[in-house]
């Protein structure tokens, strides 16, 4: 379904590949709002999907439970891997603009079958991530309401979070990205203030010598790396804004490179500060359900704990808006090419948003989130969906890493540096993939790889059915 209408024999950054993807005959005449998002609004999409506030609020303690004092090392490795991964994604994003993101990039390098696997993987990841972050939203919203002696059930909060995220995603991408960027900036600023307070009370004694390296193990770091990667997932969301961003061939690559680098530095520093802050308190970071509020209370700035709780609520919610927005664009692209229902290509003429794609994603997230929050603890909903989401991201990221040098080779632009960069990225991505299955995890997590593989098998069967239908339709014409 992809037709390349012009290429060059040697592709340099200044020489752009122009790739067009045909629109299905049934697609609505309306289009996404072109040239509407500034650099900072595109950055808002990626940053909101990452949800940097959520990592110190809930993810770092879980990583610490696995990696111990090696938590900050897990985050260093994850940061390096994501920056290298950004280079692979930018092989495509600096050459052409698309709303298909990784799905389109892998298809153009490795063909339709593998491309559809990447699309199925990233959609699986976005949906499960949305459920996880909305569980985080429910956890912190429940805590926030408790300050006012108000008790609301977790399933209701999950439903409320999903509905409001759906509403924001439907409002229009300019409104949602601006809102998300402002909220994340405020939340991160509050956490940074707490970090400075902790550094001041500990006399700025933060350095590797404060960490007990005798309790650091490679297996622990590898185990924690999977969830450390979860802290970054969604950074590529800006790539789905190709049809809506201003100067997409310039701004999108900058955002994709900048977002994991900046938040990665923030995560490494905060993990070190939090390990230092919990040291000597008699409490474990790995078992804390509200680590930032605890640290604020311990250091006599309890009011920051209230602010951080509110910030976490906003951050988790913003992340759900970000992944729904990015996922709906990929669904729209797959619909344009005939592999999903034509309805997913429908774009609201007034709001310029893919109405049915957003609505379907929101409905599915609501069903999964509310049903599981009724059957299991809200903490388990976050852990389970967050863990299984990593599979979707890692496989999609690995495929785009393989696709990048193949794509360059096809266009006679492959250099030895591209091969080395892709190999290192691939090896770093394999660490959390292997660490997720060996040693075998306990509890429900041991079934997650099988669930994901089952999803991919079903997706491939669906792809073959749709492809045969398209070929038969073309033959009849």
UniProtKB/TrEMBL annotation:
Entry keywords, A to Z: Cell membrane, Membrane, Transmembrane, Transmembrane helix
One of the GO biological process terms: transmembrane transport
Subcellular locations according to the entry: Cell membrane
The keyword Cell membrane appears for this protein: yes
Membrane-traversing stretches: 72-93, 114-140, 146-169, 181-204, 216-235, 255-278, 303-324, 356-378, 384-409, 416-435, 447-465
GO terms for cellular component: membrane
Membrane topology: Multi-pass membrane protein
Keyword Chloroplast part of the UniProt annotation: no
Major location category of this protein: membrane
Protein name as catalogued: APC family permease
């Amino acid at each position: 379904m992809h037709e390349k209408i012009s290429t060059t024999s040697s592709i340099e950054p200044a020489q752009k590949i122009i790739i067009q993807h045909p629109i299905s005959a049934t697609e609505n005449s309306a289009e996404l709002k072109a040239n509407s998002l500034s650099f900072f609004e595109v950055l808002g999409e990626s940053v909101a999907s990452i949800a940097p506030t959520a990592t110190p609020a809930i993810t770092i303690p879980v990583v610490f439970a696995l990696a111990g004092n090696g938590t900050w090392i897990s985050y260093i490795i994850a940061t390096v891997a994501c920056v290298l991964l950004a280079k692979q994604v930018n092989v495509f994003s600096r050459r052409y603009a698309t709303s298909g993101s990784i799905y389109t990039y892998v298809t153009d390098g490795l063909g339709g079958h593998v491309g559809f696997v990447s699309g199925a993987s990233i959609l699986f990841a976005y949906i499960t991530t949305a459920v996880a972050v909305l569980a985080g939203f429910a956890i912190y919203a429940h805590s926030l309401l408790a300050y006012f002696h108000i008790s609301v059930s977790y399933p209701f909060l999950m439903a409320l979070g999903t509905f409001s995220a759906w509403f924001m995603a439907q409002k229009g991408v300019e409104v949602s990205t601006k809102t998300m960027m402002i909220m994340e900036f405020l939340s991160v600023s509050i956490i940074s203030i707490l970090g400075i307070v902790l550094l001041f009370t500990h006399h700025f004694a933060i350095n590797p010598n404060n960490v007990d390296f005798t309790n650091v193990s490679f297996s622990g770091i590898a185990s924690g790396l999977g969830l450390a990667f979860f802290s970054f997932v969604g950074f590529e969301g800006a790539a789905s804004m190709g049809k809506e961003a201003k100067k997409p061939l310039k701004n999108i690559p900058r955002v994709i490179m900048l977002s994991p680098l900046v938040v990665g530095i923030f995560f490494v520093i905060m993990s070190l500060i939090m390990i230092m802050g919990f040291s000597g308190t008699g409490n474990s970071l790995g078992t804390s359900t509200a680590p930032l509020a605890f640290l604020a209370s311990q250091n006599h700035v309890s009011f920051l704990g209230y602010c951080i709780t509110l910030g976490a609520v906003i951050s988790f919610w913003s992340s759900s808006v970000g992944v729904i927005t990015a996922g709906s664009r990929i669904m729209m692209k797959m619909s344009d090419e005939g592999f999903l229902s034509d309805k997913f290509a429908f774009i609201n003429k007034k709001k310029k948003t893919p109405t049915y794609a957003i609505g379907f994603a929101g409905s599915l997230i609501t069903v999964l989130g509310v049903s599981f929050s009724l059957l299991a603890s809200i903490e388990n909903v976050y852990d389970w969906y967050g863990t299984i989401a990593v599979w979707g991201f890692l496989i999609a990221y690995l495929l785009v890493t393989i696709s990048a040098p193949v794509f360059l080779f096809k266009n006679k632009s492959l250099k030895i540096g591209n091969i080395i960069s892709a190999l290192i990225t691939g090896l770093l991505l394999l660490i959390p993939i292997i660490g997720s299955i060996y040693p075998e995890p306990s509890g429900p997590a041991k079934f997650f790889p099988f669930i994901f593989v089952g999803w991919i098998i079903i997706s491939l069967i669906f792809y073959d059915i749709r492809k045969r239908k398209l070929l038969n339709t073309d033959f009849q014409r």
